[in-house]
Amino acid sequence: MGASEESVRDLLAANLRRARIERGLSLSELSRRSKIGKATLSQLEGGSGNPTIETVFSLSRALEVPISDLLDQPRGNGLTVVRSADVQVLSGAGIDLRPLRGIESGDAIVDVYDQQVRAGSRQDSLGHVGTEHTVVQAGRLVVRVDDREVELGPGDYIGFDARLPHGYTALAGPVRSVLLLQYRTDQRLHGTRTQPPCLVETP
Question: What's the rounded mean pLDDT across residues 112-120?
Fold first, then answer.
């Protein structure tokens, strides 16, 4: 079942505060680095904030940690089934992300997301930790990485250094894709691997 909005906020609050302290940053310095208001950061650490994709990506970039380090919960063993209906959506300006699974193999960690780019919408990112992989399932997608643009169709793949500024634009209708965020284990803030949780749905 999907985690409740309140429990997800509690996870983010605890993880954000721990990450900030471990990085030796004040709220003011994190605000400067992430370009997120100090009052907003205080709310997030207090468990009363309502994060968007843009907020989480900015925090990941500023703290230099994987997104799943900010939004994690314990992972079970054995068979894992994730139902789309049970996963709350993290929405941004142009996309909706559903976290499905975290996979660890050797010194690599891959977080798997169902990604939907809304019709006629564009989602931009200034960059964040990790390597980004996208496989288009349906629709036409324009991916911009730094100053390059590539158009993808069903079955096409793109991979790039996620630290570079990048963006997604849906052409002539919505785009359904699988997003994989790959990290090195030494980039993790915590020693124990956890599964990305259901994220907070934004209005």
Answer: 93
Distance, C-alpha 49 to centroid of its chain: 17
Alpha-carbon distances, residue 57 vs 16, 126, 131, 138 (angstroms): 12, 8, 13, 25
Global pTM value: 0.69
Secondary structure (3-state) at 34: helix
Within a 10 A sphere around the Cβ of 4, how many other Cβ atoms?
12
Q: Find, among 180, 192, 187, the residue nearest to 72 by Cα.
A: 192
Residue 62 CA to residue 191 CA, distance in Å, equals 20
> For the purposes of burial, counting CB atoms within 10 Å of the CB of 170, is it exposed (0-12), middle (13-18) or buried (19 or more)?
buried
For the chain, list the domains and their CATH numbers: 5-74 (1.10.260.40), 84-186 (2.60.120.10)
> For residue 131, what are the CA distances in angstroms to 84, 128, 169?
24, 9, 19
Average pLDDT over residues 104-111: 84
Identify the H or E element spanning 195.
Answer: none
Structure confidence by residue, pLDDT tens digits, 49-103: 777 778 888 898 899 888 777 876 545 556 777 777 777 788 889 999 888 888 8
- Which pLDDT score is estimated for 140? 97
Is-contact 2 87, C-beta < 8 A? yes
Check: CB of residue 160 under 8 Å from CB of residue 168. Answer: no
